[in-house]
Structures are given as structure tokens and as C-alpha cells.
Amino acid sequence: MNAPLAGWTVAVPESRQLDVLAGLLSRRGAALHRCPLVGIVDAPDEAPIIAWWEWLVHQPPAYLIFLTGEGVTRLRGFAHSAGISDETLRDALSRTEIVSRGPKPARALRELDLQPTHYATTPTTDGVIETLRSLPLANQSVAVQLYGDDPNVPLMRFLNTSAAIVAPVSPYRYARDVSDAAIVTLIDELADGAIDAIVFTSMAQVKRLIAVADSEDRAAALASGLSRTVVAAVGPVVADLLRENGIAVDVMPASRYFMKPLVSALVAYRQSSEVVSLEARRQA
């Protein structure tokens, strides 16, 4: 079909690349419910980030862990604002072994003509830890790019127990992109069966949706609505968080955890002869 998602209304919580994801879905015939749940902003205090860069440039660590492509891009922006050139960054980063959680940091690094030395066995924190187990970390300096307000306790605990000398940095934060009232409207539409599918592209989206549902006494409505809606996750990190909160995941790309593969997986799901009709799910 030229419009394989025709007849479906898809909720889009994406913020930063909302138009990109919306375009991919609308070109396949979907009607859209745009509800950007979170935005991304630079960390409010640049001083520790610039100090981190100056340390790294003058004394490259043994290992540098990048968890997100956004982190690579934001850190590069902070470096530029401090007068550190791409050439200087390239030289410093080429002298450290880079560990990438997944393909997005690698894609951002390609803009500096760099590539990771190691990839996580799976694009998750557990995958990063599994990869790090094979590396000699004791008494070695390890720089870690964190994000949001998440200290990534499992990763930091592993590094500390491995006797690594850890230097974390968190270059961006999540911020509200729409009002709580708009999210309540989305929850009510999910509960009413007005949304056929919802596509999650970050953990922050899931966390805010659940937080608003809890604070506005809509937790039961959200659980009911999502149980009768096709839930799509961009990758295993998001999928795991959804499942941890009792939300079944119907769609996830088999590999290449980006927006286009996510939309392709959603199309394949709808076209599958094994898909349970939404009406049947809503009547269950």
C-alpha cells in the first residue's frame, strides 16, 4: 500500500525531531496527534563541562564512554563556546579508546571523522557494562558522558568497583515542552480509544507521561488506554522502561534504533496477518 498507516491516528511525543518523525508517519498515511512531552536544553552551568573538556584535551583518559548522540553534539557545542576547535577535539579523542552505547554516538562522532573503539554488546547500560568487563579498568581514567538528571547508578557503581578513576559529565537536561493539561488530554484520548498507536523515542517521554498520569489521578486511565493501543519503542532502553512500568511493547526495530526503522517496524506490524485488531483489543 502507498499509505500503509492510513486510518490510524498515531500519537507523537517526540520534541527535538518532531517534524522529522511526523513527516515519516504522515507520508505513510497516518493522522497525527502531536504532543511533545519533553525538550532538551544545555546544562545550566557550563563551567564544569568546560573544565572537563580542558582536562580531557590536555590529559586524554584511557577510555571515554558516550551514551547518547545528543551528548556528543552538546559536548562539542560547549567545546566550541570555550574556543576549543574540532581539530583539537579530534586530536584528543583519537588518543582515547571510545566506548559507544549504540549507533547514535557513533553517527555524531563521524562528524569529527572519528569512530568508536568499542561498541556495547547491546545498546543499553547493561551492554556497556558487559563490554567494559573485557577492558583493563583498574587505576585507569574513564570519562563518562551522562545525560539529564540520571546519574546512571549501575554504570557508575560498576566503574567504581572496578577501581577506575571516573570523570563524569552531563551536558544536557530535559525540560517540559507542553503543559500537564495537554498530556492529560492525550491520556484521556488514549483511554477513549481515539489513538491507534503511540511511538516513544526516549526514556524521558515515558517518565513524564507516567509522572503526569500519577499527579493528575490518571494512572488507571493511562494503563487502560495503553493496553488497547499499539505501543512502539525506538529501542531496547525505552522498551525496557515501558515494560518495567507494566506497559507492553508491541513494536521495536530489530536493529538500527532510529526513527526510520521504528516507522518501518510500525508499518510491518500493521501489515502483519498476526496483528490483533485494535477493535478486539479495545473490547477485551
Describe what you observe in this structure.
With 284 residues, the chain is α/β, with parallel strands linked by helices. The chain has helices at 18-26, 47-58, 69-81, 86-93, 103-110, 125-132, 153-161, 180-191, 203-215, 219-227, 236-244, 259-271, 278-283; strands spanning 9-12, 31-34, 38-42, 63-66, 97-100, 118-119, 141-145, 165-169, 172-176, 197-200, 230-233. It is 45% helix and 16% strand. The strands form three sheets. A five-stranded parallel sheet has the order 6-5-4-7-8, with helices on both faces. A four-stranded parallel sheet has the order 2-1-10-11. Strands 3-9 form a two-stranded antiparallel sheet.
Keywords:
45% helix; 284 residues; five-stranded parallel β-sheet; alpha/beta; elongated; four-stranded parallel β-sheet; 11 strands
Short structural summary:
The protein is α/β, with parallel strands linked by helices. The protein is built from 13 helices and eleven strands. Strands 6-5-4-7-8 form a five-stranded parallel sheet, sandwiched between helices. Strands 2-1-10-11 form a four-stranded parallel sheet. A two-stranded antiparallel ribbon has the order 3-9.
Roughly how much helix do the residues carry, as a percent range?
Answer: 40-55%
Helices, by number, come to: 13
What coarse outline follows from CA principal-axis ratios?
elongated
Q: Quaternary arrangement of the chains shown?
A: single chain
User: Compute the gyration radius: what is it?
Assistant: 20 Å
